[in-house]
Amino acid sequence: MEASRKPQTEDAPGSEEKSRQAVVTPARLPELRLVVLGWRWPGKSLTGNTILGKEEFHLERAAEFCVKRETEVLERQVTVVDTPGWFSAQDTPPSYKQELVRGASLCPPGPHAFLLAIPVGMFTEVDRQRIEEHVSLFGERVWRHTIVVFTWAEVLRNISIERYIRREGKDLQWVLEKCHRRYFVINNCEFGEHPQVGRLLERVEKMVAEEGGFYHVKEEEEEEVKEEKKKEENQNQNREGRELGARPKQSSSLSLSKTMEVEPRAN
To answer: What superfamily does domain 28-216 belong to in CATH?
Structure first.
């Protein structure tokens, strides 16, 4: 009897994991639109060149403006937008921030993925703050479409990326949690045809399948307008509340003074 029940109650090892993976099995997309983010000199432009398989982004240029390049990669039409890098320890000029945000609109109707380039090395609280400050310019929903791309990983030598992530502590963990722990290690020393590029594109396609699409620029802009209106309405309501709360005192004192003026003096 026990043997007859066993096939009904036990699944094959790993069947649950396989079924979950089947739900998010990505479709091969004929087109991929990517926006590369990061501070200056983290390997942003190098990463773009590695993906495209040729030197499309000049490493020595002063990155004040977005640069867009397109080519065919592994039977996909791939668009990569390299954005201005933000500064590590000083304020980013407003013009840089505006140009940074413009990068998403250069690949309409919106990018499939934002690749956040983080060089392997000491990751500090300031680094986390700078990432939060600049990535949030695209709205909170951008994190659902962001993959951390670790560059300069060759310095790890015999240390795994998982060990490096644990070693760097809560600040790097915060960034990865915001990205739903989506990350990829790229070796920009391997130029030209390399399996890593295909794996990265597949990772992007998987994210698109999991999130149900790409980052919609217009939807995000509309959401920002709604948020601004909501904040403005709340501010107006708070202002009116403060004014209404002050009026009774003013009117009561005024009526009291008038009463004192018209009240006849007792003899």
So the answer is: P-loop containing nucleotide triphosphate hydrolases (3.40.50.300)
What pairs with residue 104 in β-bridges?
none
Spatial distance between the Cα atoms of 182 and 144, rounded to a whole number of angstroms: 9
Residue 245, both tokens: 């709360």
Contact 117, 37 (CB under 8 A): yes
Q: Nearest CA to 49 among 34, 65, 64, 62?
A: 34
Gap between the Cα atoms of 137 and 65, Å rounded: 16
Q: Which two three-digit tokens encode residue 55?
A: 């030197």
Residue entry with tokens 């991929």: 32
What are 142-173's pLDDT values in tens digits? Answer: 999 999 999 998 888 888 999 999 999 999 99
CA angle 222–226–227, rounded 5-degree value: 115
- Integer-rounded Cα Rg, in Å, for the chain is 28
Higher pLDDT, 111 or 241: 111
User: Could you give the count of Cα atoms lying within 13 Å of 210 in the half-sphere of its Cβ?
Assistant: 16
Measuring CA to CA, how many Å separate 7 from each of 17, 19, 202? 19, 18, 36
Q: Which residue has the tokens 């005192």?
A: 249
Distances (CA, A) of 145 to 4, 71, 183, 255: 47, 22, 12, 62
